[in-house]
User: What shape does this take?
Amino acid sequence: MGIQGVIPSMKIFNHFSFLFLVVIIFSTCSVSKKVSDSKPVDHQEWTKLLSAHVSPQGWVDYPGFQRDSLKLKAYLELLSSSHPNDKYWSRDEQLAYWINAYNAFTVKLIIDHYPVESIKDIKKGIPFVNTVWDIKFISIEGHEYDLNNIEHGIIRKYFDEPRIHFAVNCASVSCPKLLNEAYTAGHLEEQLTNAAEGFLADPLRNKVSEFKVSSIFSWFRGDFKKEAGSLIKFINKYAPEPIPENSELTFLDYNWQLNEKK
Assistant: This one.
């Protein structure tokens, strides 16, 4: 390729690099936790829906959620009427809320477009710019959010808790399983630890004995290293068997097929 072909390609690359930075900065810096005087909500209805329509292995009965769409709508309206704040909500109450909100609104997104083979089929778009995770369909006390806002602009930004990567569910086979109960402040530490241990012990998503782990550990390597000093040290805190510190990890291909109950 001549220089005339290279320069436009570089311009395109720089353009998308700029867009990527803008999106990351926007999603991580523009969301505030302190927006209301609401009180913590009860997630009991979400637990009822999850226990009815999610198997212990995390497979989801989306037609079942469709049949219970009015109950799901009522729970989402509860979330939408109560934005967490630092005045009345503890740290764990806020974190449990945002995990449940991410998962419940993801289910809502799927059933609104069901049947689909993958969540990514709902809106393909440009990665990190306008994919399905950038659809602004979530309203909480008048503030509009997309799923990226919740995960990156709120949960990852404010809570410094890498185990959330095993709790938020992207409706895909390679995602950590959707827990069939709501996350709650009183049980959050236990639930997050169980989610991390269960994910690493799951041979569908990780093969720790072969030093093969989920791509999640590559995508969010910085979150895990910040907490434990190295990726392998973090993994060894929750893995069923330790990986030697000097091992070379392989990251498994991600299966974006819908995590649907067959």
Q: What stands out?
A: Strands lie at 138-140, 143-145, 212-213, 250-251. Residues 1-34 have pLDDT under 50 and may be disordered. The longest helix spans residues 3-29. Residues 114 and 174 are 19 Å apart (CA to CA).
